[in-house]
Every structure is written in structure tokens, then in C-alpha cells.
Amino acid sequence: MLKHRNDAACQGKGFYTYEAFIAAANAKEFGRFGTTGDDATKKREIAAFLAQTSHETTERKDLSDHCDTNYPQYPCAPGKKYYGRGPIQISHNYNYGPAGKAIGRDLLANPDLVATDPTISFKTALWFWMTPQSPKPSSHDVITGQWTPSPADSAAGRVPGYGVITNIINGGEECGKGSDPKQVDRIGFYKRYSDIMQVPYGNNLDCNNQRPFNKIA
Asked: In this structure, which of 81, 101, 168, 178 has its CB flanked by the most CB atoms within 10 Å?
């Protein structure tokens, strides 16, 4: 499925292993991942997760600090940077802090664990996938049909489907502006993996007409 995973030109060649993915998915914290609903729903969730992570791991990294002092409950460690790492490229101390707490590792003090331990790396991605961050639902709830749009969501054009997951992950850059090349790439991966697993795509694959969650509806 991931035919370019170990290409020589890939910076993460050999890092993202099947064994690490399965170990992370089997962690008790993420027991609902790929196990919710009927067989088609389970496969569709895995296809959606692999599609989003395929896109996220092909983009050039932003190596900025991303320490946001507006979140003193997640203090940045001296000399550490909180740029995007892992299959979903979590960034900022306000993500590293709660992700580390959820998986039992101090990622504020050791953010490089996300780039050096493949199981931890996948766990942070699954944490982001499974955890709602208000006003955003979790990607898990969206793809398994457990999310009902609020009146604000409906007014903003956010409707159930794969497109909302793109909005959750990177809506500020990709959504509400018509067709976007990055968004098209995410959809292409999703269709490829869904076809391999022989499951229908569902409706509303894009977020062309959706306002990002951080915009007032």
C-alpha cells in the first residue's frame, strides 16, 4: 500500500514500520481505532488515517520553534523545539504536552522521541486522530459516522465526510478556498487506499466550501 515508504530519497526511510503501527494501534488508549462499526467502517477509518498520514509525511518540514507561551500548563523545555513530527506532524507545545500525557511519556522534555521512536510517533498520530479538540470533533468520530454537525458547523458548510478530517488537520490553509492542491493530494491517497480495501469513499470528500474551524461561522 505504501509503495514509497522506503524510497532512498525519503528522509524517514525505514522509520515507519508495520510493527510500530500495529503496536501503537493495539495500545489500550486507542482501542476504538479501526474497531468501531461494521467491517466497511473499520476499513474506511484505516484508509482515511493512512491517506492523511501519507500526505503529512510527504510535505517539507517547518522547523520553527512553535512554543506558544499562552499555554503555561504546557511549559516549553529550554532548548527544545516543537515543530511538526510524526505521521500527523503534531506541532506546538499545546499538542506535545497532552499527547505525551496520554501515552505516558514526557514529550515536552523529549519532543525528539516523536522522530526517533516509531511506536511513540504513531501513538502521537493516533492521539491526534482519536481526540476531539473543541470546537473540532475527532477524526475518528467523523469517519465512523459518530459526529453530528452543530448549528455553527452547518452554517460553516462543515458536513460529515472525509473533507472534515482535512479541515481538522489543516483547515486554515486548505479549506474554504475552492480546490487546493494539498487537499486534492489527500483525497487521492484516500481513494487509492479505499480502492485497495474495496470500501466506498462516502460523501463530501473535500472541504472546498467549508470554513476552517478557527473561523467564526
From this structure: 168
